[in-house]
Amino acid sequence: MNKELETKLKTIADHYGLEIQSIKLAEEAAEFCASLIKVVGFDRLSFDEFIKDGKNEGYFDRLSDEAREKMVEELVDVIVVAEQVKYLLEKEPEFKTIERLMTEKVNRQLKRIEKEKNYEH
Predict the structure, then answer these.
(1) What is the Cα–Cα distance from 106 to 58, expressed in whole angstroms?
(2) Rounded distance, CA 121 to CA 118, Å?
(3) Alpha helices by DSSP H, the chain
(4) What is the pTM of this model?
């Protein structure tokens, strides 16, 4: 992340504080989830079985593309606010616990991936 963006994010975070930005993060995450569901739904509707005599061909593809663009915007919102919350949490004594938990979760997922790779029927 460039220094200018980092400074701006910190300014916003310091202005609103941890409680407000945590609530904002939940809101943005919910909006991202909703947009993801739309993408999946439109992708499923774009299958041939929903095309009626060629009249609506491409219709759901267009809606899916629009939903995908919206999903990316929502993801950016999540990342922007998550970066602010992370910055604010770094000031808190609990942050070391958060880092430890993140490390544990990442390591656990990497072990799962190894099991998936080595799975045989």
Answers:
(1) 40
(2) 10
(3) 3-45, 59-89, 95-118
(4) 0.81
